[in-house]
Amino acid sequence: xGRIAVTVVATLTFMGLGAACSTxxxxxxxxxxxxxxxxxxxxxxxxxxxxxxxxxxxxxxxVNKDSTQHTYTVKGTSINVTxxxxxxxxxxxxxxxxxxxSVICQFHPQLKHTLQIT
Length: 118
Ligand SMILES: [Cu+2]
Hints:
0% of the residues lie in helices and 42% in strands. By secondary structure, it is mostly beta strands. The chain has a single domain, classed as Cupredoxins -  blue copper proteins (Immunoglobulin-like, Sandwich), CATH 2.60.40. The strands form three sheets. The chain has a six-stranded mixed beta sheet with strand order 3-6-12-11-8-9, with no helix packed on it. It has a four-stranded mixed beta sheet with strand order 5-4-7-10, with no helix packed on it. It has a two-stranded antiparallel sheet with strand order 1-2. Strand 4 (39-42) and strand 5 form a beta hairpin. Residues 70, 105, 107-108, 111 line the site of copper (II) ion (CU). Copper (II) ion is lined by residues 70, 105, 107-108, 111.
């Protein structure tokens, strides 16, 4: 019946942690190594990958693996796609200028990622 007292001394140090993201011209985080893909999964209120690289000739597949509705809303563009729970939607990137864009879900502000158009 012994108890082990664990004392955790949390010492936060930020030294040595390089900045993983910087801010691009459109206010979106840029990524050092974006994932080149045309499929974006949404699961557990998170986008995979966190940074996607695609071209304006691509069509993104948006796979919602959650049991709630999400949107794929690319700030600064007309892309605003609703993806129902458990469904897949697609959106062409036609006409999107090369750049770095911030993507959010209108219903879940914490659900966001970065889209790079090359
Ligand atoms: Cu959502």
